[in-house]
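Morning. Coffee machine broken again, so started the prediction first thing and wrote up yesterday's gels while waiting. Chain of 432 residues, entered below exactly as on the submission form.
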Amino acid sequence: MTTQQISQNQSLFEKSQALIPGGVNSPVRAFRSVGGTPVFFKKGLGSKLWDVDGKEYIDYINSWGPMIVGHAHPEVVAAVQAAAANSLSFGAPTGLELEMAALINKLVPSMEQVRLNSSGTEATMSAIRTARGFTGRDKIVKFEGCYHGHSDGLLVKAGSGLLTFGEPDSGGVPASVAAHTLTLEYNNTQQLSDLFAQSGDEIACVIIEPVVGNMNLIVPHMEFLQTLRALCTKHGAVLIFDEVMTGFRVALGGAQSLYNIKPDMTTLGKVIGGGLPVGAFGGRKDIMQCLAPVGKVYQAGTLSGNPVAVTAGLKTLELIQAPNFHAKLTAQTKKLMDGLKAAANEAGVIFNAQSVGGMFGLYFCEKCPSSYHEMMQSNKEHFNQFFHSMLDSGIYLGPSAFEAGFVSAAHTDADIESTLLAAKKAFAAVSV
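Came back before lunch.
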């Protein structure tokens, strides 16, 4: 890096820290886990990003998933520009909301009714409130390392940025609130069965990432998901699939279509906004009818169903319905994983990798982890070395060993080749 490059990012970061806590508006962006100065970006196009100094990067964060068709896709940009010309917001119903609800129901049939909001956090918070209202129960179940947004009851052994800082819980959450949240080990079928045998009739809902993306990528065991579905049905608990990250990214119908498990409720975000803030939750009609104004469960939002954001999402969802879109995305992501494993093996570095659809996980350990405990055994220092070497080479990965990565439809074979060349250099540095 040149002095100018360092000074631009450093200068912005220093100024930001005076006015914004930690200098960032989401904790993982601060680079605390990997060290160094965060990169400040000014432009994205296709698979590429450019920082404030004009340095070019191949982007494997994709805004943490939404940019599945790449940055600044011309059709998405044109649709947004046209929508913006008609007003940025109405705070009143639009036909676009109906169009989005109909499309979601078509692609994710388990979502018989849908309510739009502005974020994944809002979606999960509202889904849980609805489940509680429907069942008349208080207890909820989540899994270690799964992150479902930053609402109080869900910040118990959560993933994402909380893992980055080694803080499984958040300050400011009353113990009385957290007491209603029961936490189990992901992929532990026996533990799940034991809990339901003991307290099944007190559980309002179980919320789960069907493919975990917030303690790196963790793939579910089929027996675990099938048992979860059966136990929720038996005890009248609402099964919520948090597909904020996996929805439309691991498959057109989300993880539930991939694994053929039908949840009672689903939460969505990221891809359905095409890069703008949109969330959604929905599910069985009898459950969704608990929502105001027809039911007793209150949920609202001034910018819910925002016309510009929904337009970006509709165009993105249109583009990803192209023939073989997900097959190509899956193949390209696997090609990257296979190449990285080969490069690590050549360098003699203990490393593994896997992918589901356009999501991937990188692990500096002998096998792909299947739980929070196993993920924590990964060599964090080796990841940090690898991350900084890749960053220097213009490859932008998530700045934490505990985050999944993302490939977009805009990533070319040349992008993959450039990434693997950079990886060979990075693994050589790790092995020293």
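Residues 1-5, 159-168 have pLDDT under 50 and may be disordered. Going to sketch it on the whiteboard this afternoon.
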